[in-house]
C-alpha cells in the first residue's frame, strides 16, 4: 500500500457504519472498479482507505492511493522548480499500480492540462486493464459537465459501465451532525 492518508490507516471495517460494511462486501466480491460518491465530509476517504487496506490484505498486488487536488498541486509546482518531480513522472507513476484509488476527482482545478493528464492516465488504466477506484462529491455526469465528457466516459468504463456507483449519503460528519 502506498500514499494512503495516515489519519484513517488505523480504521477497521468495524468502525464503518453497518450499511457501509455491506458496500465494502459488495466491492470485495467484485474485481471491477467503483465510484464512491456523497457529500463533502460524508466519509468517502475514510471508507476507501479501509477498502484499500482490505484489498491489499487479500492480495499481493500494489494498492496505491492518490488525492487528485494534491497531485495537480504538485504538478503546478513542478513547472517552476526543476528539482521537483516532473509532470510526466507524477502521471506515469499512477499507470503502474495494479489497484489505484483516485481520491476527490472533480475537486482539482480544471484546465486544459489537467484534462489531458487525466485522459491519458485513465486511457492507460483502461488499456492495461488495471482496477481503478474513484471518490468524488460529484456524480459521473457532473464530472462530465465540470471537466469533459471524455473523462466521464472513461470513468464509466473503469466502473462497470458506470453501474458500480456507491452513494455514501449527504451528511457532513465533520460538522457533528447525526451519523446516519
Ligand atoms: N464511518 C464513519 N463513522 C464515523 N465517523 C466517520 C466515518 N467516516 C468518516 N467519519 C468522519 O468524518 C470526517 C470526514 O471523513 P472523510 O472520509 O474525510 O470525508 P470525505 O472524504 O467524504 O470528505 C472524518 O473526520 C471522519 O473522522
Ligand atoms: Mg475526502
Helix content range = 40-55%
- CATH architectural name: 3-Layer(aba) Sandwich
Side by side, the strands of the main sheet go 2-3-4-1-5
Strand content bin: 5-15%
Q: What is the name of the CATH superfamily?
A: P-loop containing nucleotide triphosphate hydrolases
Briefly note the structural class of the backbone. Answer: alpha/beta
- How is the biggest beta sheet arranged? 5 strands, parallel
Question: Could you state the order of secondary-structure elements as H and E?
Answer: HEHEHHEHEHHE
The radius of gyration computed from the alpha-carbon positions, rounded to a whole number of angstroms, is: 16 Å
Mean pLDDT: 92
List bound small molecules. Answer: adenosine-5'-diphosphate, magnesium ion
Helix count, DSSP H or I runs of 4 or more residues: 7
Task: Report low-confidence residues grouped into runs of 5 or more.
Answer: none
Terminal-residue CA separation: 30 Å
Overall form: globular
Strand count: 5
Query: In the CATH scheme, what's the topology name?
Result: Rossmann fold
Give the tally of structural domains.
Answer: 1
